[in-house]
Amino acid sequence: MNPPMTKALFLIFHGFDPNNGISKKIAYQVDALKACGMAVHLCYMDEHQSKRRMVDGHVIADYGCGLLSKIRKRIDYQPIINFAREHGIEFVYIRSNHNANPFTISMVRQMKRAGMKVVMEIPTYPYDTEYAAQGMERQIMVDKLFRGRLARQLDAIVTFSDYAQIFGQRTIRISNGIDFASVSMKRRVNDTTHELNLIGVAEIHEWHGFDRLVRGLAAYYSQPHSYVVRFHVVGYFFSAEGERAFRQLISDCKMEQYVILHGKQHGAQLDELFNQCDFGIGSLGRHRVGIEKIKTLKNREYAARGIPFVYSETDDDFDHQPYVLKVAADESPVDISRIISFYQNLTLTATQIRDSISSLSWEHQMRRVLNGL
User: Fold this and answer.
1) Neighbouring C-alpha atoms within 13 Å toward the C-beta of 22
2) Which band of pLDDT confidence, cut at 50, 70 and 90, is reported for residue 1?
3) Contacts (Cβ under 8 Å, ≥6 apart) of 48
């Protein structure tokens, strides 16, 4: 007989939309934990009608509508504790929503008293500067007061950074992973004799720094040239103000012919865009929110697609790969001629690029979490 599977709860404090990038990542992590031999339940919020806390599609708490429901979903975690106890949960994986407070502290404390191992993933660290850059400092005032106390209740904090401790708690350091079954490799080898197509896929924030690429294109086209470079932007803008500013920049630089906004794409449409394009644009502005080291999902997706790419942060998994171009973490326009030269001198195939990240599968990364406990 097979030994009984460890029962786990993957806890998030927001909604779960299969078409959303963050939700996809969570689904991959859940599947990875299952591949590691765990029986995993997913707890999330459903706010389409009333505010309901769900586990695997079943309601465990209905907070109703209105102001009171918004308060209750942030302070009432007893249904989660009850579910965990009743179902014999042994391991709890929490995705931080930067919501440390007396209620989350109490929840973790009760889980620990019941004998559960509890870890919390902090997706981006440090994160205060991101909130400040978006004018949202007030949103984490309570978190700042209580996150140290919350951290002390945990068994570990899972991080994609290089920090050995966060808020006084030891860390388990992993990389953002990739679900290879869900990411199609680029199948088409384009004729790049006369043109190069760049692609940037993101929920677009200022830290993606796509404006640096547009200004680089403007500088490139201001000089005599015989080679065409286009930038395909895929995804939606986090803010309407950010989208207006980006469109205005394209207009001011007269780059409408060379910067194409595709909006949000997924599935076969996204696969076809990757087939049309040759080179990925990662984050070019993480320095704007005070982040030097980060292991973004986008870098891993580009590698899984089998295309070379550029970014400006430090990512230990990719910094020394021959298919990666690094640019300075500053406000200078991206040198388009450098991208062209880099691409033209690259000899690796899409398969070779994809194969180079086999150790970055989500199963491998989540096993590191379990081994760290």
Assistant:
1) 12
2) very low
3) none
Q: Rounded to whole angstroms, how far apart are CA atoms 345 and 363?
A: 34
What percent of the chain shows pLDDT beyond 90?
Answer: 83
Q: Could you give the count of Cα atoms lying within 13 Å of 89 in the half-sphere of its Cβ? A: 28
Question: Tens digits of per-residue pLDDT, 29-41?
Answer: 999 999 999 999 9
Half-sphere exposure of 1 (CA within 13 A, CB side): 3
Read off the pLDDT of residues 250-274 as tens digits, 9 standing for 90 and up: 999 999 999 999 999 988 999 999 9
pLDDT at residue 133, as a whole number: 67
**Please, which residues have CB within 8 angstroms of residue 221's CB and are 6 or more apart in sequence?**
255, 258
Cα 43 from Cα 8, distance rounded (Å): 11
In the 3-class helix/strand/coil scheme, how is the chain assigned residue by residue? CCCCCEEEEEEEEEECCCCCHHHHHHHHHHHHHHHCCEEEEEEEEECCCCCEEEECCEEEEECCCHHHHHHHHHHCCHHHHHHHHHCCCCEEEEECCCCCCHHHHHHHHHHHHCCCEEEEEECCCCCHHHHHHCCCHHHHHHHHHHHHHHHHHCCEEEECCCCCEECCEEEEECCCCECHHHCCCCCCCCCCCCEEEEEEECCECHHHCHHHHHHHHHHHHCCCCCCEEEEEEECCECCHHHHHHHHHHHHHCCCCCCEEEEECCCHHHHHHHHHHCCEEECCCCHHHHCCCECCCHHHHHHHHHCCCEEECCECCCCCCCCCEEECCCCCCCCCHHHHHHHHHCCCCCHHHHHHCCHHHEHHHHHHHHHHHC
- For 55-71, how does the pLDDT look when each residue is reduced to its tens digit (9 = 90+)? 999 999 999 999 999 99
Identify the pLDDT of residue 143: 93
Cβ distance 354 to 304 under 8 Å? yes
Average pLDDT of the residues in 87-92: 98
Decide: 5 and 338 in contact? Cβ < 8 Å: no
